Amino acid sequence: MKALGLQRLRVEGQAFMEAISREGYLAYSGHKATAELQPIYQQYEKVLGPEALELTLELFRSAPAGDERRSAQWLLEWQIESQASKPLAALDEREIAWENSAVLRSPDGRVIQYQAAPIEIANTTDRKLRLGIDAARSKLVKSEHAPMRLERLQREKDYIESLGVADGYNASFEAVTGISLTSLAADCQRFLRDTQSMWDDTLPGFLRSSLGIKPADAKRSDALALFRASEFDAGFPGPQMESMVRKQVNEMGIDPVAEGRIIYDLGDRDGKRSRAFCSPVRVPEEVYLVLRPHGGQSDYNTMMHELGHALHFAYASPDYPFEFRWLGDNSVTESYAMLFDHRMQDRGWLLRYTDLRKGRVDAFLRRAGFEELHFLRRYCAKLIYEVSLYVGDVPWGQLPDLYVSLLSGATGFEYDAVDAFVDVDPRFYSARYLRAWQLQSLLNDDLTARFDADWHRNPGAGPWIVSELFAHGQRDTADEIASRTKVGKLSFAPLARRIEELLES
Ligand SMILES: [Zn+2]
Prior knowledge:
By secondary structure, this protein is mostly helical. The chain is 62% helix and 4% strand.
């Protein structure tokens, strides 16, 4: 067998990622009942073997600063993640098959797919029935889903720690990604403290007016119904969503299908995930945007989010090496996704591309501020929880109590202990989201300075975004991109200010 060099690792690594991504797309979109991952791991054994890990570790330790260094860093991070996924492939297949077939029985006698339970809960206005569906979901999570997730989390942690990249799971994440979990968690603590009184002033009114319940009674399933915001449905008609969104992208000077490289998969289908996603099956040539319609504003929101990802991948420079197109700091692609979904907080955008009438926009923006504050507080609490989970100072058995106290405390909605291992973003993906939130606000300010507040329909803005941001894939980190903006540094401060403005709309 020929020795594994950098070029061969890139070529075969990319082929492996394409195969895994295609299988994921087919299974998560409901085209296949399960994902056949193990044969793919076998086929690409070489790129996931000890030789590949050694090669990337060696590159990481010896590469000079600059593109070679970042290239080595992204390759090592990918190696660690993929090597850890290989022994877990059987668990993943079992979980995907289970999720695609599991059903629960609603108190009114209907059989509901497990995947569709969050949609059902969000759409159920009768509170007793809503809590009943959630109780059935909770029972199923406790007996079947949570044990699978727990096993995966434990085995992944053990595997990463066995590689000895640094001392412990968190330190190895920090060493390879360059992201300080300690300082981000401290920023999250501060944000939770700084916005506590704003949250206490805001939550009761929305609970009362939208759901008619008191803060002491609010459960997480109520949050799903509250953020579904069905009172605004008339402003966000499903049938015209795709064409309005495409119109906006056209107006900013970008082809919304990227000359056919982006494929929209927006229909309902059994087995399709309730959470929308973007699958870059070949970057930049073949990118799927997948959404299972819930109805109303949340569809517009997720559509815009996934569109940001899809455009980013479909406009990545084809000349870049594999690692700059496929790998890197996912805070970057998440920030482009959020730059798009945050148009839902933009008065001009709402008036132009939705049916929200003028008289309703202020109420919608206040609500958007409330929703933004909720999700940021939720993600801050999630990151703090996940850091604890992986540090290992809290025994696994006590994590559910910690989860409930942190998440309920931050959001004001009572969380369910059964979700402690299901509601976890593996490999600190929540850190990527939080950094993306910060970066999108800097990018929005920059675009506004360059192309005015309505940059979303300025034909000069799209080409600039493509050449200055999207084309670079994920070569740069979120911090590097932030350093080129006027503010220059990622922080929660501009987000807190923007939320205050929205709440005063
Ligand atoms: Zn995303």
